Each structure stands twice: as structure tokens, then as C-alpha cells.
Amino acid sequence: MSFSQNTGHAAPFPRLSILLHWVMAALIIVMLFVGLVMAHDSTIHYAGLFTLHRTVGFLILLLVIVRLINRFTNRTPTLPDDLPAPMKLAAHLSHILLYGFMIALPLVGWAMLSAGGYPITLWGGCHIPPLMGFHPHLWGALRCLHSLLAYGLILLIIAHIGAALLHGVIRRDGVMGSMLGR
Amino acid sequence: MAHSPRKGSPARWAAVVLPPLCLGGLMAWTAGVFRPPSISPSHFMQRFHNAGALGDGFRRAHAKGMCVTGWFDPSPKGQALSRSGIFKGEHLPVMGRFSLAPPLPYLPDNPAVARSLALQILSPKGDDWRMALVDVPLQSMRDIADAYAFFGAAKLDPATHKPDPVAVQTYAVQRPWLKTAFEQAKAHKQTSDLTNDSYNSLDSFILTDSTGKKTAVRWSVVAKEPFAPAEGSGANDGNYLFKRLVQTLDQRPLSWDIVATIARDGDPVNDPSQPWDAADQKVTVGTVTFTKAYSEDESPCGPMVFDPTILPDGISVSDDPLLALRSSVYMRSYATRSAEHKAPSMVTPGDVTNPTLTPDGKGQ
Ligand code: HEM
Ligand code: HEM
Ligand code: HEM
């Protein structure tokens, strides 16, 4: 497979990459809202939301592994030649960070509930083994880290969507299209 | 199309900036920003603080306590009601925590205060059953709004260091649906000791048997020790309740029956403030026996959380709104206190090794 690099018609991402990108984007946005509601609203739906949060969290962890394997076994379309070097760097760094957060958030969620001595059961009754033993101090710290990571991911996603729209609406250089399959 | 002259028009810039800003704004709104204060776990933390919770690594409620360990022996009747691994017949380890209900970690023991018991029963297969029970007969709140108002009324008056009686009275008067709960609390005969007290889940749970049949129950952990009244049983020692429990355990094990009250049609399962039919069937599903006491500063029961929604397969939560609330608020209390440096508990390791009553009036 070869990708042309002219500014107007960047080649699209492979189909599987596009599918994974949009499915995971939707799941992650749902997860962020569910987490925020759990932590900032007293709702009678807490148990159900928490089960959803754990289940989708582990689904995301699984998908991100598939996505990374797919990413390293496929070529990724290059960014337009006329994109200034600092913007290219920002794009690459932000994508690495996005992957980092997608891995770290569910791992920290898993670790913190393990450290806190909470059993981890998914929707349907599947039981996840703890990542570590009972460490209450670590639970307190990791719970805090989970929030900080989530807030970091929110800021990054806002910037990422802004940048995608900048490519799609202002620069119209085909980068947006590369993730839409065009 | 590729080179539209209006490439940088305001409308196009709006299309770039507005969608991410809206998403961010919606997330901030969900997190409670730009919203009139709604009821959240951190608002409950604030109310516990106003009601005397110290921080310092203590639980935000039921702050003063002591740990015990022992065993659970199920009865065959438990297995008939629930397929849980807890009731399979094995002799299982139990960790318990006796506590005083208020958020005050240095409250001197006295006959008037409500007491509580938390339990964790573990099976070798990993079944984990946690309970948090109190010795009052009915819950004096029925939903999240009641709970929020209730802990608001518990705010300590800075002058008297006691809740304002008018606020407590107003809470009760404004809620005619809690009339029975308050009447029963008043009629409740407090016992002399932690050892002969009985403790109730108040909230309801659903048991599922091996065929999938569901039964709604309320739990009681019923003392086997004989009743003695609280009147005149106090002692001039700030830890007399806990020390007398240690003294008894030094002599002999102490047992409680775990009793399920089975709901009949019409019993309100989602409202812990309402009584169930007095003729409801009561089934003893097993017995807990405690053999040894520890200060919570030297036992894992101190730092752990007894979230009543942590349940094994075969036991699940009912649609009682307070169970959902408790799970989220216990988690917040647990996370906050776990990140704090813990001050020494009022019941010290020394009190457990030498439980002689001394008129020390600690914490007064
Ligand atoms: C939850 C949200 C999202 C996450 C976690 C996310 C993550 C990512 C990651 C990691 C990449 C890099 C792909 C790679 O090179 O391997 C990427 C690329 C991309 N994303 Fe997203 N994304 C999200 C939402 C969105 C949204 C809402 C849009 C559109 C408005 C979007 C548009 C794009 C585009 C156009 C690219 C291609 C960039 C390029 O060609 O290098 N993403 N996304
Ligand atoms: C991509 C995955 C995940 C995302 C995006 C995510 C996001 C969030 C967010 C935004 C919050 C609210 C933080 C706050 O405002 O304080 C939260 C809380 C939480 N998350 Fe996650 N999370 C993820 C995975 C997980 C996993 C896998 C688990 C557990 C196995 C988990 C357990 C929790 C818990 C226990 C809370 C606290 C809820 C409360 O305070 O009531 N998360 N998460
Ligand atoms: C049926 C009603 C309730 C019962 C039987 C009950 C019982 C208990 C017991 C026994 C404990 C002590 C657990 C231990 O020793 O670790 C406890 C802790 C606690 N309770 Fe409740 N409770 C009830 C309702 C509530 C409600 C409605 C709230 C507030 C929303 C609340 C807030 C707390 C908090 C914050 C803790 C400390 C949690 C921790 O840090 O571990 N409780 N409860």
C-alpha cells in the first residue's frame, strides 16, 4: 500500500483503523460522562453506572491493544508536506499521549479498585482478578490519579477535536478525510 | 473546493472552535461546574465535616470503632434462600468492626448514642459479603433528598458542639412519612453493651437461589447474649463500651445470629424508613462468632471499607435508593481518608491489651 502525500488528498487510514478510532472515540466519550456523573452526582443509578464504567473500561483496554497491534502492522498516512514542523510534532506527540491515556486510565482504574479491596465484577458476572493486594494508601493516591488522568484526557480530546476540525474546515488538507475514509 | 476564498471566515472558525468547546462545557457541567449545587458525594463530605467529622484519616461517619475477628457458620436454610458460596456449609473467616454511629472519632461512650456493626465474610472461592448495620429499628430517611437534609440537620452548633435541636425537630416535622421511623426509634430499648445489642441492615437486599428464584430480605444480626437495659449501665470511662466488649472476648467467644426477614407482598422493599409486616417469616441463615479484638489502628478492618453493595453472587442490592447513595458516598469517604495521615484512634492498642475501666473521660 502506498500513500500519496499531496496536501489536498492525504490517503485514508486503513478501514480497521478508522473503525477502531470512531468506536473507541464514542466509548471514551461515554466513559468520561459516566465517570463524571458517578463522581459528581448522587444518583440512584450508581450501581448500574459503575458496572457499565468497569465493563466498558476493560473493553477499551482490550480494544487499545488490538489498535496498537493494528497500528504497528499497518502504515499510517503521513501528514501533509506543507504542515509546519512544530505542528507535525504536536500532532505526533498528542497522538502518543492519547494512546498513553487510553491505556493508563483503565489500568489505573483496575489497580485502584484492587488496592482498595473492591472486587471487580463486569456486566454479566465476569470476575476480574486484582492487579495487586490490599493497599489502602495506594487506593487513595490512585483514585486521585484516575481523576487527574481523566481531566488530562478531556483537555487532550478537546484540543484533538479542535485540531481535526482545523484540518477539515480551515486547512482542508485531507487529514480529516483520512480518518473519515475519504 | 480545495481553495475556497472564504477559507478563514468567522463561520468556519466557529465550526472549528465551537464543537470542542461545547463538549468541554458539557463535561464541566456534568462535573458540577456552572450548575447550582446539586447533591453530590462531596456535598455529603461537607455535611459530615459540619457534623463533626475530623478528617485525620477517620471515617466520615461511624468514626469511632474497634475491630474483631472470628468465624461464620452458615445454616442449611441460608443455602435454600441464596446460591451464594457463603452458604455452602463451610466455616468461614469474618472480620468485623463495632462502632458508634456519629461522625465524631473521639466521642466518649455513653448510653444514648447509636451503635453499629460492620462485617466482611469471605469464602475461599472469593465470595466477599460486606454488611454495615446499625442498632436502630428503621432508617430515618427514605431517599437521597432526605439523607442530604438529615445530615444537614446534624450540623454542630459552634457554641454547644451539639446539633441544633430545632433543626432536627424541623427535619422530622417536615417529613410525615418518617413518623413511624421516629416513633420506633423513640420506643427502641437500648441495651447495656455492644455485646448484647442487635444490628439491622435497614436497607433491603435480594437473594437468588440455585433455581433463580428471588427473595427480598432485610438483615438483622441478633445478639445471643441476654438483654440488659442501658439505663444505669454507663461507666465513667470514655471507652467503656469497647473495653467491656474486649473484657468479654478475653473470657469467651461471642455469637450473633444472622437473620433474614423475608418480605411478603406489600412490604416496601425500596424504602428503609417503613416497617414490614410484624408477622414476616424470619430465617436464621448462620451465626457469626467473634473471638478476638484489635484496635482499628492495628487491624486491616481500620483502613478498609464496608460498602454494603459489595456482595457475592446470590445476594444483590434492591432498588432502595439509599444503597446507591451509600456506595458512592462510602467510596468518597474511603478515598479521602485513605489519602490522609491517620491520627490515633480513641480505642488504642493499649485499651485492647489492658481493658480495665479507668475514669479517664477521654475526648471530652
Ligand atoms: C474520544 C476521543 C478521541 C480519541 C481518544 C482519539 C484518538 C486519536 C488517535 C490516537 C489518533 C492517531 C491515530 C494514529 O495515528 O495512530 C487519532 C487520529 C485522528 N483523529 Fe481522533 N480521537 C478522538 C476523537 C476524534 C474526533 C471527535 C475527531 C473529529 C472531529 C477525530 C479526528 C481525528 C483525525 C482526523 C485523525 C487523523 C490524524 C492524522 O491523520 O494523523 N478524533 N485520533
Ligand atoms: C478509558 C477508560 C476510563 C475512563 C475514560 C474513565 C473516566 C473516569 C472519569 C472521568 C471519572 C470521574 C473522575 C472524577 O471526576 O473524579 C472516573 C471515575 C472512576 N472510574 Fe474511571 N475511567 C476509565 C476506566 C475505569 C476502569 C477500568 C475502572 C475500574 C475498573 C474505573 C473506575 C472508576 C472509579 C471507581 C471511579 C470513581 C467513581 C466515584 O468516585 O464514584 N475507571 N473515571
Ligand atoms: C440503612 C442505612 C445505613 C446503615 C445501616 C449504615 C451503617 C453504617 C455503618 C455500620 C458504617 C461503619 C462501617 C465501618 O465500620 O467501616 C457506616 C459508615 C458510613 N456511612 Fe452509613 N449507614 C447507613 C446509611 C448511610 C447513608 C444514607 C449515608 C450517607 C449518604 C452514610 C454514610 C456513611 C459514611 C460516609 C460512612 C463511612 C464510610 C467509610 O469511610 O468507610 N450511611 N454506615
Structure description:
- The complex is a heterodimer of chains A (182) and B (364).
- Chain A is an all-alpha fold and 182 residues long.
- Chain A has a single domain (15-179), classed as Fumarate Reductase Cytochrome B subunit (Up-down Bundle).
- Chain A contains five helices and two strands.
- Chain A has helices at 15-40, 46-73, 85-115, 136-171, 175-180, and strands at residues 120-121, 127-128.
- In chain A, strands 1-2 form a two-stranded antiparallel ribbon.
- In chain A, helix 2 crosses helix 3 (85-115) and helix 3 (85-115) packs antiparallel against helix 4 (136-171).
- The longest helix of chain A has 36 residues, at 136-171.
- Chain A is elongated and about 55 Å long.
- By secondary structure, chain B is an alpha+beta fold.
- Chain B has a single domain, classed as Catalase core domain (Catalase HpII,  Chain A, domain 1).
- Chain B is built from nine helices and nine strands.
- In chain B, helix 2 packs across helix 8 (321-338).
- The longest helix of chain B has 21 residues, at 10-30.
- Chain B starts with 9 loop residues before the first helix and ends in an 11-residue tail after the last helix.
- The mean pLDDT of chain B is 94.
- At the A-B interface, helix 1, helix 2 and helix 4 of A face helix 1, helix 2 and helix 8 of B.
- One protoporphyrin IX containing FE is lined by residues 44, 59-62, 65, 97, 99, 116, 118, 132-134, 139, 147, 201-203, 272, 305-306, 322, 325-326, 329-330, 333-334, 337 of chain B.
- One protoporphyrin IX containing FE binds at residues 21, 25, 28-29, 71, 76-77, 79, 91, 95, 98-99, 102, 157, 160-161, 164-165, 175-176, 178-179 of chain A.
